[in-house]
Amino acid sequence: MISKDLLRKIRGIEIRTRHLVTDVLAGQYHSAFKGSGMEFEEVREYQPGDDVRSIDWNVTARMRHPFIKTFREERELTVLLVVDMSASLQFGSGSQLKQEIVAEISALLALAAIRNQDNVALLLHTDQVEKYIPAGKGSRHVLRVVREILSFKPESRGTDLKPALTFLNRVTHRKSVVFLIGDGRVSEENLEAVRLTARRHDVVAVRLSDPREAEWSAAGLLDWQDPETGESFLVDTSSPKVREALHAQHQDWTRQQDQQLRRGRIDALALSTSEPYERALARFFKIRAKRRGQ
Predict the structure, then answer these.
(1) 45: which DSSP letter?
(2) Residues 89 and 70 in one domain
(3) Taking a C-beta distance cutoff of 8 angstroms, is the pair 219, 246 a contact?
(4) pLDDT < 70 positions in the chain
(5) Total count of domains within the chain
(6) What domain range is 197 assigned to?
């Protein structure tokens, strides 16, 4: 049974993301993501300005004046949300955990998709496939997606994209838009799996970070525990050198992640828990649409 608190969270996310889809992302999703191809629609008379390469010479010869073939985009897509449910998502230095913000981002993408008559599927993973919800449409389906992200209790705590992508490539044969949503921990071993997926699908890596992961405050000697492995470390945050080293380590890791994705020609979107994600998404859609010649 769903708790009242969970229902309240789901309802709040639905209201907020519907507003954002309408007011912020209206039309931009459609431009950023194309359908799987062009489909013949009709033949009509040539008009000044039409592309002469579209002239149907058989009909033109028969009718003794120019006609052109027109095509329409085969618009329907499947959007697959591949969401990291590892223990590292159970962190947040602000009012929300990463997992809650991931649920909002997923809801926003899902609502933008169904508004364009696209299908939405969900794949939850840790270092294994935790749950798969096949593609569907409609508001009830999106609410189920949000509910699963907020309430699902994974069996594992670690992170490994490869099992999830192997499963995805086995169950999804038609070209889809795949959003890899999490805190962006793509290892060298996983990168080849991401590249393989990108050959078949349109892949976008969405990385959500928290400022406290890079900027440690001077709080003395801390017993820090890795949420995924359970390993504990004593960290002397009173030392400026230690804080600087931790910051540099995080910056190097982020830079390596970005380089790996660029080498794999994977679109990447970096988001922060401290900044509104909707504006960054809107900018990303605009840049992507422009690059694709929209």
Answers:
(1) E
(2) no
(3) no
(4) 1-2, 24, 26, 34-41, 71-75, 185, 292-294
(5) 2
(6) 4-31+78-291
C-alpha–C-alpha distance, residues 30 and 13, integer Å: 22
Of 45, 74, 103, which residue is a domain's last? Answer: 74
> What pLDDT shows up at residue 2?
67
Same domain? For 86 and 99 the reply is: yes
Helices first, then strands: H and E counts in the chain = 9, 10
Q: Which residues face 74 on adjacent strands?
A: 37
pLDDT at 257: 79
Cβ atoms 137, 117 nearer than 8 A: yes
Listed residue (203, 204, 197) closest to 165, CA to CA: 197
Residues 151, 57: one domain? no
C-alpha distances out from residue 31 to 21, 75, 191, 294, Å: 14, 11, 28, 6
13 plus 113 within the same structural domain: yes
Same domain (yes/no): 120, 251: yes
Q: What is the pLDDT of residue 120?
A: 94
- Per-residue burial over 59-87, b if 16 or more Cβ lie within 10 Å, else e, is bbeeeeebbbeeeeeeeebbbbbbbbbbb
Q: How far apart are the C-alpha atoms of 284 and 224, rounded to whole Å?
A: 35
Three-state SS at 39: strand
Q: Looking at the structure, tell me whether residues 44 and 62 fall in a common domain.
A: yes
Sequential DSSP letters for 89-139: GS--SSSS-HHHHHHHHHHHHHHHHHHTT-EEEEEEESSSEEEEEEEE-SH
Does residue 134 share a domain with residue 54?
no
Which residues share a beta bridge with 84? 125
Please tell me the number of Cα atoms within 13 Å of 62 on its side-chain side. Answer: 9
Residues 149 and 18 placed together within one structural domain of the fold:
yes
